[in-house]
Amino acid sequence: MNSITPFPQPRSAPEQVAFHRTELSEILSLYGRMVAAGEWRDYGISTLRDVAVFSVFRRTAENPLYRIEKRPKLRNRQGQYAVIGMDGQILKRGHDLKTVLRVLDRKLIRAVE
To answer: Nearest Cα to 52, choosing from 14, 90, 16?
Structure first.
């Protein structure tokens, strides 16, 4: 009798973390206000295995000014959302994206002369 060789099972693609439509709506709303104020000019989105990152740039060829990260593994700890500055310092972390993004909204408010 011939032995039957089974086909190898296809590896499932590694799941990627991504921003949900409502999360992107919040982020892009802030982004639009900052572009209108002349503070930001470009952005990039990265979806990786453990983290989704929305990077904000003043100019295209620079390092990002801010990174908005979503790490679902930290959901039950410090919160899955974080805003990280250019130097790598965590500016705000929490469970609610809207409250985390307020740290960047404050940068928009300036004294009027």
So the answer is: 16
Residues in the chain: 113
pLDDT digits 0-9 by tens, 18-63: 888 999 999 999 989 888 888 888 888 988 888 999 999 887 667 8
CA dihedral of 29, 32, 34, 39, whole degrees rounded to 10: 150
CA distance 54 to 44: 6
- Scan for tokens 């983290």, then name that residue: 51
Residue type, 35: V
3-state secondary structure string across the chain:
CCCCCCCCCCCCCCCCCCCCHHHHHHHHHHHHHHHHCCCCCEEEEEECCCCEEEEEECCCCCCCCEEEEECHHHCCCCCCEEEEECCCCEEEEECCHHHHHHHHHHHHCCCCC
User: Is pLDDT above 80 for 109?
Assistant: no
